[in-house]
Design a protein that fits this description.
The chain is an alpha+beta fold. Helices cover about 45% and strands about 15% of the residues. The strands form 2 sheets. Strands 1-2-3-4-5-6 form a 6-stranded mixed β-sheet. It has a 5-stranded antiparallel β-sheet with strand order 7-8-9-10-11, with helices on one face. β9 and β10 form a beta hairpin. The two termini are about 15 Å apart.
């Protein structure tokens, strides 16, 4: 199975998780409906007892009868241990069993999963002792594009312990750093507030001062991030709009305008270009088109009405866009650049048109 086929299967599984997760009530049902298909999508023969072993013995010390849910073997030696939980389980406090199994075997990687969330562990800090923190965590239902190459490393044909280990350390601390910064950006703690105040406040940083200025620091963090994002998007939009305006009016009319009474506005063009930028790594820009209608502005793939991705509505009372998913999910926005806040959702719905 090649990489493109694996990605297609993983994307299909993502939809499966969204569709059936509420109907799955037990751990066994989770294994059969979600976890086994996940490893099958990674090209493992889940019915081959020499490669994919259920209830693998992992006795720990004097404790006998210990069994991990699944083990992936290579030449009879366990490489990956998989501890499965129910889709309804919170995995935050569920890693103790996997920790014991990891120490009891020669496996290099451990995976804790509830069928949607997958936590990948190894022994970066102490040999043969599973790290407390995973080096990678993915959600199948909300898989990000930058996670796919890392996930592909765990496919049967690409699996290479040394290559994964080499990147695991950077990946682990990159993710931990991102998690820390995201938490601080949304709700900075006192230590972080004091760190910021150390560079801007020259008086005594009492707890009263920290409490007083905490909302100000939080607001400033939010504004800095938004301004940087808007600056980059505005720069990209200005460039793309200039390129669009350089095209002949005849070309634009022939490819996009079906009704001469419809006027395509600057806002609509900017929204179209922004979506092209968002989708540049998913769908080639030359496959994306727009069609302006009386009531909405359509962004579609391959110039086909059946392949619409986003419908954008500019009205007097509000602006909003609708995604081409099962629920036709809609989101309101004030400024066009706010559409980028939903980039992950737009990318996800567009994947149905990937080639």
């Amino acid at each position: 199975m090649n990489k493109a086929e694996i990605i297609t299967k993983i994307n299909a599984l993502s939809e499966r998780v969204q569709k059936y997760s509420k109907d799955i009530a037990t751990e066994e049902a989770t294994k059969n409906a979600l976890i086994l298909p996940f490893f099958a999508a990674l090209d493992y023969d889940i019915f081959n007892p020499k490669e994919f072993v259920p209830e693998y013995t992992a006795d720990f010390g004097g404790k006998k009868g210990e069994r991990v849910d699944f083990a992936i073997l290579k030449k009879g030696v366990p490489q990956i241990l998989i501890e499965a939980k129910s889709i309804s389980d919170n995995l935050e406090t569920k890693d103790s069993q996997l920790f014991r199994y990891f120490t009891a075997t020669k496996a290099k990687f451990g995976i804790l999963t509830n069928g949607d969330l997958y936590k990948f562990y190894t022994d970066l800090e102490d040999i043969n002792v599973m790290d407390k923190d995973p080096f990678m965590t993915i959600s199948v239902s909300e898989l990000k594009d930058n996670q796919i190459p890392e996930l592909l490393k765990f496919s049967r044909t690409s699996f290479d312990i040394e290559k994964i280990t080499d990147s695991a350390s950077d990946l682990k601390y990159l993710n931990l750093s991102k998690d820390f910064l995201e938490k601080q950006l949304s709700n900075p703690d006192d230590k972080f507030i004091k760190f910021v105040l150390n560079g801007i406040y020259h008086g005594v940083r009492t707890q009263k001062v920290v409490d007083q200025l905490s909302p100000v620091v939080k607001k400033s963090l939010s504004q800095v991030i938004n301004e940087r994002v808007n600056d980059k998007l505005s720069s990209a939009l200005d460039t793309s709009i200039q390129e669009t305006s350089n095209k002949s009016d005849d070309t634009i009319d022939q490819s996009n305008i079906e009704n001469s009474d419809i006027v395509t506005t600057q806002d609509e063009i900017e929204a179209y270009i922004l979506i092209k930028i968002i989708l540049k790594d998913v769908i080639s820009p030359d496959r994306l088109f727009y069609r302006d209608n009386q009531s909405y502005f359509n962004v579609l793939a391959d110039d086909s009405n059946r392949k619409w991705i986003v419908r954008i509505y500019f009205t007097k009372s509000k602006n909003y866009f609708v995604l081409h998913d099962n629920a036709n999910t809609s989101f309101e926005f004030t400024n066009i650049t706010e559409i980028s806040n939903y980039a992950d959702k737009i990318i996800k719905v567009s994947k149905q048109y990937q080639k």
